[in-house]
Amino acid sequence: MLSRFFKQPVCPESPQSESDTLTEPWRKIPWGCKERDLQVVRDYKPHNEELEQLRIMLHGPTGSGKSSFINSVDTVLQGRMTSQALEDAVSQDTFTKEYRTFKIKRSGPGTLYPFVFTDIMGLEKETNQGVSVEDLKLAMSGHIKDGYNFNPFSAISVDNSCYNKAPTLKDRVHLLVCVIPAASVNLQSAESVAKMRAVRLAARNIGIPQLAILTKIDEACPQVKADIKNVYMSMYLKKQMEVFSDSLGIPVKCIFPVKNYHSEIDPDDDTDTLILSALKHMINLGEDFVNQQ
Fold first, then answer.
1. pTM over 0.85, yes/no
2. CATH number, domain containing residue 145
């Protein structure tokens, strides 16, 4: 099954041929309805009285855009460019070193949205680099506190001050999101794929719902770079999503292509629409999970 992960051609630099472009979008998305989608997010409140916020954990290879996605969501909800999660455009190694939860402010003073994002160290292909699968398992179960500096050589010990010996529902992860660049789907090593698959199975074993985000879609496909509304007209992106689904087992309906904010200085409605589409599904899946606890 993993062999399919490495054989898909990259999107051509030249304009795509007619066979690369679908005549109809294969997934419907409500372009022009940003304000409606924003209101859905603004109105959300967890129904489970034990919780104030859903906890969404992002994981994936180094440089996949996890921190950028957090900042992009923050940008959409604030209506201005933000950079709450630190990003790095130079280092090839993971820039995020510690376990950290990011809260997003509402427009009113002192109020927060009822969901948080947990950013973690990237999954490196080498065994002794990046966050360990064992640490991820413990984090998903709520055993790791904010501020823990990941050690690629060993998992957190119960004696560590950042080890939570008695996690409650609010400490646990309520949704796991795998983040990977669209053009890198066919470039991931077997070791990286195995790590991502191990994390997925660990989440399954404790019942945590999962979805995936394909980032950098504009860099992956010139058709989308020309007009982001072509995202579901691109045969290349559709194939990438299918290959990713076959490799990790995440259903295509749970994979969302997005463009994170990178060089822009002002938000864009169409970029926001894709981010909101992914965010709404995250909230729905997380809400379903906590209501079953």
1. yes
2. 3.40.50.300
